[in-house]
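Here is one chain, start to finish.
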Amino acid sequence: MAEEYDLVILGGGTGGYVAAIRASQLGLKTALVEKGQLGGTCLHRGCIPSKALLRSAEVYKTAKRSEDFGISVGDISVNFSKVQERKNKIVDQLHKGVQHLMKQGKIDVFEGIGRILGPSIFSPMPGTISVEMNNGEDNAMLIPKNVIIATGSRPRSLPNLAIGGNVMTSDEALIMKEIPKSIIIVGGGVIGIEWASMLNDFGAEVTVIEYADRIIPTEDKEISKEMQRLMKKKGVKIVTSAKVLPETLQQNEGVTIAAEVKGEQKEYTAEKLLVSVGRQANVEGIGLENTDIQLEKGSIVTNEYYQTKESHIYAIGDVIGGLQLAHVASHEGIVAVEHIANQNPSPIDYSLVSKCIYSAPEVGSVGYTEEEAIEKGYKVKTGKFSFRAIGKALVYGESDGFVKIIADEETDDILGVHMIGPHVTDMISEAGLARVLDATPWEVSRTIHPHPSLSEAIGEAALAVDGNAIHG
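Its structure:
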């Protein structure tokens, strides 16, 4: 039996389930199709589990240096099965929360693989969804007025570098039974650096091999430079301007692989190898060939309201490329749903999106890097303030890093804010709000930041833009 809906969403990850909730709030009869578990990659194989592991690594690292705080303890060790148990408990709790939200919103959830059909007896337009049910029941037929594709992404690998054995992606790394004694991480981007930080804090010997000339190459150059310095200070080996040669991979007791580093071939050996070279959109097997939907570089092409070439079929999140972040997918889903419901939403300005790296130290950024601002023709002025002069950072025992503010010399508007240091992922939203409100450094400096607090570094950096920092 075919059932009609105002909206059917393919994919129950962060973007998909948030879109479903917003659709329910707007009175749309909504169905969501998910082949795995509600919450998708972010909840089960990304954001949440990796941050749970990072927190355990942070606690272990802090416990090992408890003497610095005047606290004497006995032997410190990691019970990694308990670490994994805690991670799983957090994921399970949040998963139940999402399930509850679906029931609360009266959203029909179909557990199975959804495919878009072409014009048929059900509809003269592409868009009918056939669901191959996980429980083996007959396919469900869903006839929607609108569709949102939110099928997400999966870890990418290098050509000819097979995943298996001692070679893994972040998906496999999240379910490791024990911490490897040593690991090679191919890719020094956001995910690679988070894993490097975590495994190093857990006691593994870590080598990061990055193709670009610096790690976290999408961040401001000064942030990249500071991260590289602090990673090396922790004992992480960083190799940049290196092209990994997959054909040299050998797996025996561990792994050995070579890389071409500035014209010279070098060999690296470790117990495990983690491939962290980005993610690719899940566009296969969902029936795109039955539509006029266009792909570009493996991702679905949309307009600013996330409509595809088929105006009643939308796409959001990782499957459209762009900023592959859970909070971005959520807001793209809200914009798409509000457009479907004729709510006249404002398109997203991606330069206002805050980005975070949850390594130790953390990184938070919003807006343009200094290099991007200059390339766009702005005449910039910058202010920078170190956490070494912030009392709360010294109290925490984490005083490495800084806050950097980039402003337009002509209008004084803030163009970008970049932070590296303790808890900056919790601080970056102030900078995000400043960007949304077109604030100037002077306006941020007029915000009286409490003392002692880490956020004082933001106020001091704002003052530093015009050479007026009080404590620096």
